[in-house]
Amino acid sequence: MALLMAPAALAKPIEVKVVVLTTFEVGADTGDAPGEFQAWAERWPLKTSLKVPGIARPVRLSEDGVLGVVTGMRGRARESVAALVLSPQFDLSHAYWVVAGIAGVDPRQGAVGSAAWARYVVDADPPFELDDRELPPGWDVGIYGPGAARPGVKGSAPGSSDMVWRLDPGLVNWAYGLTRDIALPTEPAQAIRSRFATEPAAQAPPKVFLGDALGTVRFWHGERRTAWARDWVRVWTDGAGVFAMSDCEDQGVLDVLSLHGREGRIDPARILVLRTASNYTREGDGETQAVEFTEGGARAGFEAAWRTGSPVVRALVAGWPRYRDQSPGARP
């Protein structure tokens, strides 16, 4: 049984080596149907539970300095990460951060069960929006950027969001290099992949790849919204990013960590975002628009996050005497 410790019982901040952020767990942390967190809690294992004010569920700590957190979904992730960074219970000044959660994948980029390390995280939360039934002539979508006059034009969002975060290329490439050949589960998601005959990447076996994340607290789905997401990522990254994964939390997580990074509380060059595909961002070829979540897709995503993320976390812990002060992605 995990030991639950109150904040007052901790006399000295605990130095954390790696923070693993997941967004939800179905029930208990261990012993029942899995969500994003259960594999980390059971297999690492994360044995000690601690209550952090401002985070709904207890966080869990391993003996070797890995801290696992269920942030909650959508806007709650932002609040939880802020509470964690501000907590006097932990020393996070040298910590690495690994976001490990499921997402929707663009069928043009990958298959259900795949895992993508993000090079860019792009915020889609502060857009201007018109009803798609009332669009001006020449518009194909009613969502456009603040500070812009129409879709497809880059604007700005001062006081609202940085909009784009480029993760440290050296660290991202190091993580990808460690995991690019990992075998990911192929069943039972094969039946889901077969519905996308026009997309070779969607039919291929799951893989680990480099692919960028679009975050927005509102859930969206469909062919036209997928086209919008591709364009949104392209515009805001000046053509450098390629939309791969859609989720509801990364923009909030990166916003909070970046703000605190400017104050020296955490190191924003030590952030990794790993999203794994539980579903596609659009309906299957020729199908009526419908949002579908299958148990097989979700379970494939949970397992892919563990199989891909855990080797990176283990390497960081094993190399801590060096990696505490120098990132594995840093040039010699």
Automatic annotation (TrEMBL):
InterPro entries: Pur_nuclsid_perm (IPR009486). Pfam families: NUP. PANTHER family: PURINE NUCLEOSIDE PERMEASE C285.05-RELATED (PTHR38643:SF1). This is Purine nucleoside permease. The lineage of its organism: Bacteria, Pseudomonadati, Pseudomonadota, Alphaproteobacteria, Caulobacterales.
